[in-house]
Automatic annotation (TrEMBL):
Pfam families: Cytochrom_C (PF00034), Cytochrom_CIII (PF02085)
Gene3D superfamilies: Cytochrome c-like domain (1.10.760.10), Cytochrome C3 (3.90.10.10)
Source organism of the structure: Aquirufa novilacunae
Protein name as it appears in the record: Cytochrome c3 family protein
Every Cytochrome c domain range: 28-121
Segments crossing the lipid bilayer: 152-172
Coiled-coil ranges from the UniProt annotation: none
Family annotation (PANTHER family): CYTOCHROME C7-LIKE DOMAIN-CONTAINING PROTEIN (PTHR39425:SF1), LIPOPROTEIN CYTOCHROME C (PTHR39425)
Domain of life: Bacteria
Length: 402
């Protein structure tokens, strides 16, 4: 009977670790998928059913088979050209806006993104993305970790392990009853449970399981903390004047360049001066308490102390005109849908990996630019894919760090 008990214990622990390994694999896939989604997809798609530039991705794994999704992510135009009805209906519904292809994504990476979408919709709803934090508050807790879903899944795994251990104790107790029925008539129930618990605690498999779990949780927490250093995704500080981009850039469709005068011409986009505000507000809504703050700043000849939202470290060189003018990128590629933000927040991670991924996937805007003619000609001799930013030095360290 003892041999049978030992065999059953080993079987149950093998089953337990199989569950743990499966859950850990799913958690890792979802964590990697979250990073890929936020770095590449979040500018145009929400993980919920909210419609942004493109459709919300909630339930995408139920709407389309994984084979179709992989083909679509790799080359959406090819799927449309094949006559696929779903693809063409989607293309026409969103005004024939071309989705950026991601041919370098593996099937496992795409499945990781889907795992993150499914997991995020299964979790409790998070606060609204546009909600501003309290004055002086740091970036939201979600911004401190690039793998927020990982913690939820690991907690779930811990609960499963505890439940399995409880079930295991009950089984061991039942086996002990069968083996020692004649000797245990007078023993209290809790005393028998305590004895079984002691023998279970002395089991090397249990000790190994506890150590592995502690290392897994501690390692994940350490990695998340390291990756979160310097990342302020979701940061939405309170400004000295309550300025609504949703009203100005959205409802009134004022071009970004009107206020941020360097966005197409200079290295920086420039923070607008009070004089630019007065081009309109010398006659519009002068009585507003917020507009009166502009008048007071002008009377005192002092600049408005706007709080910077997007702040790259000094070691990184970034030129706005190179991206917006030469590259032809829209502001929302990096900043998200500013025209829908009441309070501006940092939507993208702005990490080095995020920039490099963009350089790997973005086609060079060479049309009508004779500077690139020879480069395109040489590139096309050896490759059938379009000329990417990475092909013209976009991955060289010295491009951004010098």
């Amino acid at each position: 009977m003892c041999c049978k008990k030992l065999t059953l214990v080993k079987f149950l622990f093998s089953f337990l670790f199989l569950i743990a390994a499966t859950a850990a694999t799913f958690a890792q896939d979802a964590a990697e998928g979250e990073t890929l989604f936020k770095n590449n997809c979040a500018a145009c798609h929400a993980s919920t059913d909210e419609v942004l530039v493109g459709p919300g991705l909630k339930g995408i794994s139920e709407r389309r088979p994984i084979e179709w999704i992989v083909k679509w992510v790799h080359n959406p135009q090819a799927v449309i050209a094949s006559g696929d009805k779903y693809a063409n209906d989607l293309y026409n519904k969103f005004n024939k806006a071309a989705m950026t292809p991601y041919p370098n994504f593996s099937e496992a990476q795409i499945k990781g993104i889907i795992a993150y979408i499914d997991a995020s919709n299964a979790a409790p709803a998070a606060p609204a993305a546009g909600a501003a934090p309290a004055a002086g508050a740091a970036a939201p807790a979600a911004a401190a970790s690039s793998g927020g879903m990982m913690e939820v899944l690991l907690v779930g795994l811990l609960i499963i392990m505890v439940l399995v251990l409880i079930a295991l104790l009950a089984i061991v107790n039942s086996l002990s009853k069968l083996a020692k029925a004649d000797q245990e008539e007078g023993k209290p129930f809790f005393e028998r449970v305590a004895e079984n618990a002691k023998s279970l605690a002395a089991n090397s498999a249990v000790k190994t399981g506890v150590i592995v779990l502690v290392l897994l949780l501690g390692g994940k927490a350490t990695i998340d903390a390291a990756y979160g250093v310097g990342i302020h995704q979701g940061y939405a500080p309170e400004q000295p004047i309550k300025f609504s981009h949703k009203l100005h850039a959205g409802q009134y469709q004022i071009n970004c360049n009107y206020c941020h005068t360097g966005v197409y011409e200079g290295k920086g986009a420039n923070v607008p001066s009070a004089n630019i505000c007065m081009n309109c507000h010398n006659a519009i809504k002068r009585e507003s308490p917020e507009i009166q703050k502009i008048y007071k700043a002008l009377e005192k000849d002092e600049p408005i102390q706007w709080v910077r939202v997007h702040n790259l470290p000094d070691l990184a060189y970034f030129n706005h005109s190179q991206h917006t003018n030469v590259g032809g990128l829209e502001c929302k590629n990096c900043h998200g849908e500013i025209e829908k933000m009441e309070v501006v927040e940092q939507r993208s991670s702005l990490t080095m990996g995020w920039c490099i991924d963009c350089h790997r996937q973005t086609d060079v805007n060479a049309k009508g630019n004779a500077y690139y003619d020879k480069l395109v000609e040489v590139h096309n001799k050896d490759s059938k894919t379009p000329l990417k930013v990475q092909n013209i030095g976009g991955l060289e360290c010295s491009k951004c760090h010098y």
